[in-house]
Input
Amino acid sequence: MEPTTENILPPLTTSSSIDISALNERIKQESAFIDLLNMELGKTIVGQKYMIERLMLALLSGGHILLEGVPGLAKTLAIKSLAAAIHAKFSRIQFTPDLLPADLIGTMIYSQKENDFAVKKGPIFANFILADEINRAPAKVQSALLEAMQEKQVTIGDKTFLLEEPFLVLATQNPIEQEGTYPLPEAQVDRFMLKAVISYPKKDEEQLIIRQNMQMVDKTINPVATREEILRARKTVRDIYMDEKIERYILDIVFASRKPEDYKLNKLKPLISYGGSPRASINLAVAAKAYAFIKHRGYVIPEDVRAICYDVMRHRIGLTYEAEAENVTPEEVISDILNAVEVP
Output
């Protein structure tokens, strides 16, 4: 007898078997440090609320984030400030065409004193890694980084080292200059939980940035949370209640990117070469729970899924040559899917 879905699925925790109000109260208390983090980051970063929120989502979900934006939008400052605010170790790696995997993970060095080889660890051994302009380095270096991202460990010689949690990689890409770059293969891009596209600040925000840079204001970031608190929060995020209707909503969004014709989106069929992988479904669910946590809520609502959908899906939908010829973007495809899929 073939096993059915009902045989495979674990029993769902229903709202009747869980006290939503008690869970809500617990989440409110345990997510209080998010407001402190936002206040502390506000000392150095003006505006860019969207970028900071996405950084928090990646941190709370245990995922990694790919940022696309022109230089000078405070990407480096944001992750450096976040690392300081939770008293974590920060490493910045500038990716260049001559970078080697050993420059990233470390290497074996011969010690004359010990008459043996010793391990010299690379900059990957930190809590927060800024991989600046990741598409400037060749595939061998990118794969070394992405192995560390996926496995949370690094092998140097015959020794394997576990990376210390929390471990968050923020990779940046410059969307303008493509000369001398090595585009990330789809399988590697899929390993990033979120891809956020950062835009310029508003005029009044930029005026405030000018003023702050002209004045000698103390911008020291004080630690307001600990690494232990972050790891505890990650476990709490998984406890946030998600109804089966929300699960089905997430599945409908991902399946509509694979088989748009099943959702009366026949016009998208010639535009999509491949849709979201099961990793897209998992990340949509986890990121939606993390978004609810940031909003101090113990349960997920459809708006949480819609809020993070573009960031989780935009790098997981492959467009055909026809779509590129018509200047169709992944964001337009996601908008059509969200408009077509029924909201629970």
About this structure: The radius of gyration is 22 Å.
